[in-house]
Design brief:
By secondary structure, this protein is α/β, with parallel strands linked by helices. Helices cover 34% and strands 19% of the residues. The protein has twelve helices and 14 strands. The chain has a six-stranded mixed β-sheet with strand order 2-3-5-4-6-7, sandwiched between helices. Strand 6, helix 3 and strand 7 form a beta-alpha-beta unit. The two termini are 32 Å apart.
Amino acid sequence: MAFQGKKLINNPDDVVTEFIEGLVETYPGLQYLDGFPQIKVVLRADVERGAYDKVAVISGGGSGHEPAHAGFVGSGMLTAAVSGDVFASPPVDSILAAIRAVTGPMGCLLIVKNYTGDRLNFGLAAEQAKSEGYKMEMVIVGDDCALPPPRGIAGRRGLAGTILVHKVAGAAADAGLSLADVAAEAKHASEVVGTMGVALSVCTLPGQVTSDRLGPKQMELGLGIHGEPGVAVVDLQPVDVVVEHVFKQILSQETQYLPITRGSNAVLLINGLGATPIMELMIAARKAVPELQLEYGIAVDRVYTGTLMTSLDMAGLSITIMKSDENILKRLDAPTKAPAWPVGSEGNRPPAKFPVPVPPSPSVKDDEILAQPQELSKQGCILEAAIEASATEIINLKDILNEWDGCDTACVSNS
């Protein structure tokens, strides 16, 4: 049965503008254009109009994918992000306002996810900006590997792999490259990245009812980040099985969505879709890294695990593989002040991880750790029996104790 989704919001019509206001209050390096509610643009606070001496990198799209895209604004990544309403492409005027606000003599690159509305509106804005004298380039990202060919009218959807393209392009621009070179690096990155998502639930839009399309023991393969239907609805599977299936799709030699073969190097991104605990993402990462290396012979250079591109409160994850090379790794490792980029992920990955041995107790000698226990006295046997009986009784009470432990103060006071 469908029911009204619960949200910690005010007016559903104000969620995007109020999100932006909270974002800039949190991060001093960000600012927004004074054009609410029609124009919803977050930009770097240190960029003055017309004076920016590097290539401006702008992205955006419908809201509801936070922290994308505004959370990736900062030096070394996006110069500005344009937000539409929830799951709606931003209007042309908003995109134009962003271009005019941050673009200097070096020009502007637009990075656009492959959706009809985004391609249309960003494309129209780019043409209008060119007519005003701005140097413009646009790169389309379609990294979805879930849908088999034919790929539909629009083609492959833009998913979490777009974030890696943002980082590559932003670092190239920050290094002072020309517009043509920044666009070329972004285009190359977009051609060597593949993503597939798996959802345990669909998302709830602010002010709307929650869909009951997925049952309690079902999951959907290839669900889109706007809640679009995926490839199939199947019974809930363990995450190890899910990871194996996703890799088969992304690395399929039949579709050849990703130009990567045994012996290649890659970057791995495990992305939460909004309501997935970090515990579950790390369990997926634990399977994904050795699976990619041992089963497919692909060396993993970097691993990014976190919530980077969401679908509101959707439970599930997406996995992204990007074929890496020396230049891509240099761009991913370059410093950035974008608040949502995983700051703890820079640098080389060790080739293997081994558990650290448990240190022995300082009161016990090494040769005593594995020694057989001495024979107990009569009193010792009595004590041992008492301890075992007590432990057994506690184990038998496990369910009751766990129930008490999970009960809050109100529950205790009412019992």
